[in-house]
Amino acid sequence: MTKPKDVDSFIANSPTKAHPILKELREIIKSTIPEAEEGISYNVPFYKFHGVHVGFSAFKNHATFGIGADVLQNENRKMLEEMGYKTGKETIQIKYDQKVPATIIEKLLKEKVNKAKKRQKNESQSR
After folding, report:
1. CA–CA distance, 108 with 112 (Å, rounded to integer)
2. Alpha-carbon distances, residue 75 vs 54, 65, 81, 83 (angstroms)
3. What is the CA radius of gyration of the chain?
4. Residue 122 in domain
5. Helix 102-125 crosses helix 19-32 at what angle (to 10 degrees)?
6. Max Cα separation, the chain?
7. What domain count does the chain have?
8. Domain with 42 in it: what CATH number?
9. Which positions fall inside the YdhG-like domain (predicted)?
10. Dist CA 108 CA 29 (whole Å)
11. Residue pLDDT, tens place only, 9-59
12. Rounded-to-integer distance, Cα 74 and Cα 27, Å
């Protein structure tokens, strides 16, 4: 894959079967966190907001959504795994024949925003 200059080119250069999932992940992020700054970092889409970030990438047979260990706790991983998704410490793998777990991702994104805002508020109060 050539180095993407933006998220559109990343999606366009990803496997065709990845396009629907990548587009849906992008839309979930943008609609849940409209203030997120979209860009490319480490050659994959990243969304920065309130001092934290999330992102996604495409592989041969799955897309990976990186949300972070701060919100992807054991109970979330267990629930996702029971639904057939693979998880890592900070990531959710979505096979191209699976539906995006949109409701769960939205919930995790909102939790990530809330934690980041609280941390920023605490940091500014301690100065």
Report:
1. 6
2. 20, 17, 10, 13
3. 15
4. no
5. 40
6. 49
7. 1
8. 3.90.1150.200
9. 20-112
10. 10
11. 999 999 999 999 999 999 999 999 999 999 999 899 999 998 889 999 999
12. 26
Distance CA 54, CA 92 (A): 12
Query: Can you name the residues that pair with 113 across neighbouring β-strands?
Result: none
**Amino acid (one-letter) located at 66:** G
Tally the C-alpha atoms within 13 A of residue 54's C-alpha that lie toward its C-beta.
Answer: 32
Prediction pTM value: 0.92
- Residues with Cβ within 8 Å of 60's Cβ and at least 6 positions away in sequence, in order, are 15
126 vs 96: CA distance, rounded Å: 46
pLDDT digits (tens, 9 = 90+) for 63-109: 999 999 999 999 999 999 999 999 999 999 999 999 999 999 999 99
Here the tokens at position 125 are 């109060």
In three-state secondary structure terms, 34 is: coil
Tokens of 96: 């191209």
- Position 84 in a domain: yes
